[in-house]
Amino acid sequence: MKYGSIKAVCFVILACMVVMPAIGDGQTVDLTSIVLESFNGDTVHEWNDGRRPRSFEFSWALNASKFATRSTDSDGNEVVFPQSTYVKAWPIAVFGFNRDDLKSFGIRGRFDRQGYNWIDVYPVSGDDSTPFEIPLPGRVQYFDLWVWSGNMDLYIDAMIRDYQGIVHTIHFGSLAYTGWRNLRAHIPASVRQEKRVLPNHAGLKFVKFRIWTQPIERVGDFYIYFKQLKALTDTFETMFDGDQLADPDIIPGLWSGGDGLSGSTGRQ
Q1: Which of 126, 173, 209, 252 sees the fewest Cβ atoms within 10 Å?
Q2: Higher per-residue confidence, 21 vs 247
Q3: What's the burial of 23, exposed, middle or buried (CB within 10 Å: 0-12/13-18/19+)?
Q4: What does CATH list as the number for 29-237?
Q5: What is the pLDDT of residues 171-205, one digit of tens each?
Q6: At residue 40, does pLDDT exceed 70?
């Protein structure tokens, strides 16, 4: 092999040694399973999004399409569907027996007509009825939810909002089964969770669940129960000199007269 060829090969190897660490760093992931909601009746929810612990306060409310039943009971009181409550029940395959500290979120639906009826299950802030969109940690790859069904021909979706304000529908699938089942929904790569410019991370927000009835399914009375919504998410953040200046939680304080920060924020 000629000297010039050997020199060229060495140059290529050296270039690869320089480029490969940069590529690998951009592809580093730290997948973490985070419980977003236990459906245990708590209003305060805490988790770590990879930068620092977060705390949010919200509960759950229901809404339905126009054929949801409204009736009057024997005492003359109006009865409105859908209804919700917390019950002492849970998937034994996950939590075992003899638990006094667990509940699940129950939904009771009833419609006056068959068709593509829907029930929305959405978070609201505190005791208020104002819809609250849950900021999701990291770059979410999957949702994981335990759902009890009575073998009804229904199906369930989740709706999430990206940083551009676009709402995406994520499919959990059919509820045509009996008892508890773990449902998983994949977040496709087409849902943007990063920007080219700093700050790169552009997190999603959880908007709501939507439960649909199939047109041929009876809708006189049915029950569904939720337990433990989790997100499988990449919480890795690359550290660099001045990374705190790209932290959306720190920027407002800096520009409102807060103290400047030096060094890294310690993100992992």
Answers
A1: 252
A2: 247
A3: exposed
A4: 2.60.120.260
A5: 999 999 999 999 999 999 999 888 777 666 778 99
A6: yes
Question: Which H or E run includes 10?
Answer: helix 3-26
pLDDT over threshold 60, residue 261? no
- On the 0-12 / 13-18 / 19+ scale of CB atoms within 10 A, 49 is buried
Residue spans per domain, the chain: 29-237, 242-268
| Ranges assigned E (strand) in the chain | 31-37, 44-48, 53-64, 70-72, 78-80, 83-87, 104-109, 118-125, 134-135, 139-150, 154-161, 167-174, 178-186, 205-213, 222-234
N- to C-terminal Cα separation, the chain: 47
Q: List the structure tokens of 41.
A: 């009746």
Distance CA 15, CA 4 (A): 17
Residue labelled with tokens 């395959």: 93
Task: Note the Cα 256 to chain centre separation in Å.
Answer: 31
Euclidean distance between CA atoms 123 and 59, whole angstroms: 5
In this predicted structure, which of 48-52, 133-137, 154-158, 164-168 has the lowest mean pLDDT?
Answer: 48-52
Q: Are 106 and 86 in contact (CB under 8 A)?
A: yes
| Three-state secondary structure string covering 68-103 | ECEEECCCCCEEECCEEEEECCCCHHHHCCCCCCCC
Q: Sorting pLDDT into bands at 50, 70 and 90, what band is 267? A: very low
- Whether the pTM exceeds 0.90: the reply is no
